Recover the amino acids of this structure.
């Protein structure tokens, strides 16, 4: 630990609002909790008696499952609240839904919503902790943290620090909450970030946030330590954004041929779910440079840490 | 950990019983030499306990952080005497505590490191100070999640009384009587700059340290 670890927040809404020390608090807590998943009894009683509600207004299998399992490993009770089965379809507002849920005595709401800022609005309306599991194209803080955690793990094996890294984030930057959370966190920790994508999906305006912006993936390959490949989000794209899938794949797809032009210790990340053969080839996704499955197991530890820090014993509003 | 460490260093420079202000009295309870002697004696008693030594399967588990140091030192003594290695684990009890309450920043856990099985082995659980018994309760809960030891015996460097749970230590370095609100601060290398046990009778609000 290079800085004193601290955490006093009831919510996790963005990585933009976190300090360096707070980011390290989450990473260090996650590292300590990782051991729990290796035991025969994969559970600690830290959040016994706490109730966590998964409130997902957008489709999600992995993030929801990860949060659910994380809460269970910390001994919290979990309720899944899906949009398709709820009164939201009858016109109930987000706030009303959340207040109804909290009236049942809930300690944390894990929310995913298509609107940017929905978790922040919610946090002002309810008494319990609010954890952002992805809001529109704004932020996906736990994904950003688990990406950082996976990078730090790789750094430790290579004798490097996070601040030494040069990270390329490749793909649909404009629509990506993963890209924004990564960008905030990495720049706070002093890493160099290059955003790569077609001009329509990777606007030059991002250079204002301290990142380099380029539209030429081949030019950055030899120079980067980490390549974070984003998923092409068909559900968020307008038809004009790129002419064809084939063209996108040709210029921005990570293939074995491109991988050969990378540094020998390059780390490949992808937040999932992957469009195999589009933004990443199967050989790269399943290859030895890929940490994609490692990201999934690290995500569990990071979400256990976030739940512990926001609602654990001795936490801010306990 | 910053401010605590500073206090300790500060206290180490003072003569025993020196007052640093009207409310703040720190007194050295044990010197580095006292601690070394205590650990030697406890190691001898442990070596003499047949139930612990009979089939060479003893494991030591120290409560993080200073219980872990105590475990390593006693383990070094045992392996020196018996010419064999002894398993030493470090137990993080943060996720098992019931005594962390109130408005304060949360404790960041350090993780448990136990690369061996506990099933059917004699286990020595070690901590620096025994006070309310709540840490030991938490540690027992944590330990049984790692297996089913044949039995567990408790080793503490300082027993200061003030039990809230029915817990007793089997091996005690030093028993002391101190006012209930005072705090025992144990410093052990390499976590701290020097070995010492200090009693701090300062009348301060609780928080930071749970001893």
């Amino acid at each position: 630990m290079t800085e004193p670890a601290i955490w006093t927040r009831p919510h996790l809404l963005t990585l933009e609002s976190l300090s360096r020390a707070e980011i390290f608090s989450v990473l260090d807590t996650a590292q300590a909790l990782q051991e729990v998943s290796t035991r025969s009894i994969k559970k600690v009683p830290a959040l016994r008696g706490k109730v966590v509600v998964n409130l997902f207004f957008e489709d999600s299998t992995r993030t929801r499952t990860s949060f659910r399992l994380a809460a269970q490993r910390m001994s919290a009770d979990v309720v899944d609240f899906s949009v398709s089965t709820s009164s939201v379809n009858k016109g109930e507002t987000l706030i009303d839904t959340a207040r109804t849920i909290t009236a049942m005595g809930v300690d944390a709401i894990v929310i995913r919503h298509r609107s940017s800022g929905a978790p922040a609005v919610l946090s002002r309306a309810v008494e319990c902790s609010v954890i952002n599991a992805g809001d529109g194209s704004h932020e996906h803080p736990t994904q950003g943290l688990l990406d950082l955690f996976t990078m730090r793990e790789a750094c430790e094996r290579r004798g490097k620090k996070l601040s030494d890294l040069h990270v390329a984030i490749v793909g649909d930057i404009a629509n990506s909450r993963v890209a924004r959370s990564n960008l905030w966190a990495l720049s706070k920790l002093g890493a160099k970030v290059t955003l790569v994508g077609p001009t329509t999906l990777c606007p030059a305006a991002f250079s204002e946030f301290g990142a380099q912006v380029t539209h030429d993936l081949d030019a950055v390959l030899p120079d980067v330590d980490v390549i974070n490949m984003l998923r092409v989000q068909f559900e968020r794209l307008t038809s004009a954004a790129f002419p064809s899938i084939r063209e996108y794949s040709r210029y921005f797809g990570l293939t074995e041929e491109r991988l050969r032009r990378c540094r020998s210790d390059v780390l490949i990340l992808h937040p999932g779910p992957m469009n195999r053969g589009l933004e990443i080839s199967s050989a790269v996704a399943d290859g030895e440079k890929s940490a994609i499955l490692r990201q999934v197991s690290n995500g569990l530890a990071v979400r256990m840490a976030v739940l512990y820090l926001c609602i654990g014993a001795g936490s801010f509003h306990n | 950990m910053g401010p605590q460490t500073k206090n300790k260093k500060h206290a180490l420079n003072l003569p025993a019983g020196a007052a640093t202000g009207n409310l703040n009295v720190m007194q050295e309870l044990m010197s580095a030499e006292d601690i070394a002697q205590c650990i030697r004696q406890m190691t001898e008693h442990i070596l003499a306990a047949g139930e612990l030594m009979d089939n060479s399967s003893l494991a030591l588990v120290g409560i993080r952080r200073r219980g872990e140091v105590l475990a390593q030192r006693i383990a070094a003594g045992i392996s020196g005497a018996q010419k064999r290695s002894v398993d030493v684990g470090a137990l993080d009890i943060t996720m098992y505590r019931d005594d962390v309450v109130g408005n304060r920043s949360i404790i960041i856990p350090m993780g448990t490191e136990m690369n061996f099985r506990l099933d059917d082995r004699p286990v020595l659980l070690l901590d620096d100070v025994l006070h309310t018994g709540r840490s030991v309760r938490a540690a027992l809960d944590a330990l049984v999640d790692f297996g089913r030891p044949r039995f567990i015996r408790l080793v503490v460097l300082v027993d200061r009384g003030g039990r809230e749970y029915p817990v007793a230590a089997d091996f005690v370095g030093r028993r002391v009587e101190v006012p209930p609100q005072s705090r025992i601060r144990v410093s052990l290398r390499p976590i701290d700059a020097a070995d010492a046990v200090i009693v701090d009778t300062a009348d301060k609000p609780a928080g930071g340290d749970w001893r």
Observations:
- The helical segments of chain B are 2-12, 32-48, 50-53, 66-82, 134-144.
- Chain B has five helices and eight strands.
- Residues 93 and 139 of chain B are 6 Å apart (CA to CA).
- Residues 1-23, 206-211 of chain B have pLDDT under 50 and may be disordered.
